[in-house]
């Protein structure tokens, strides 16, 4: 609306009084149209679907090459039961926190992610709680406090290692999201509203420490039966849109 008004003031100056009056009417109808478009976007799911597709694309289907240029990726996800172990510094109460997040992830993915003891043989995620400074030192990255590495084949994940600094236990959901197939971070590109996420940078206003409504939607979409591991980005985007158009509830901005 502000942009439309500014444009029309420019026209008035160039075209004289009569044209200025016309421009004022045009500005008013533009404003009304803008109002109508705004009202429509609150009820029409399609712009929300565009944002949700852009969100999933940025986090899961795009790969960053070493030169910084993004390239197309493919669906990476787990297929079967996943055993999760916790190692390292003992933090009282933390395993209950992990179990709660895993229960939520299990519900949204339809796959069991369960805490176990010992060294499981099949698909597994190892969470290592490290003394402060150890993560940064072991990866040679001075600002690293938490880090996840995943290993898979043809898009099917088999193993992930999550390192969490003992002083940054609130990384958990962020790292779990990396571990289940969302490699990238959320910088808010290509969407028309604020989209909150555990994968936004720590200082971003969009950052959440627990899974946001948008994160949950993205997880459910990536783990829909039609999103087979290894599906190339172009096809995955078409399928994601189809899945999202069937969703009855799309999160509001900032949720
Ligand atoms: Zn991260």
Work out the helix count. 7
What is the count of distinct domains? 3
Secondary-structure element series: HHEEEHEEHEEHHH
Q: What's the architecture of the largest domain, going by CATH?
A: 3-Layer(aba) Sandwich
Describe the structure.
It is a single chain. With 255 residues, the chain is an alpha/beta fold. The protein has three domains: 2-43; 45-75 and 186-255, no CATH class; 78-180, Rossmann fold (3-Layer(aba) Sandwich), CATH 3.40.50. Helices cover 44% and strands 16% of the residues. It has helices at residues 2-43, 45-61, 94-109, 134-139, 172-179, 213-222, 233-246; strands spanning 62-64, 70-72, 82-88, 113-115, 124-130, 146-153, 156-165. A hairpin with a 2-residue loop joins strand 6 (146-153) and strand 7. Helix 2 (45-61) crosses helix 6 (213-222) and helix 2 (45-61) runs antiparallel to helix 7 (233-246). The chain is globular. The model is unreliable at 1-43 (pLDDT under 50). Bound molecules: zinc ion. Residues 174, 178, 185 line the site of zinc ion.
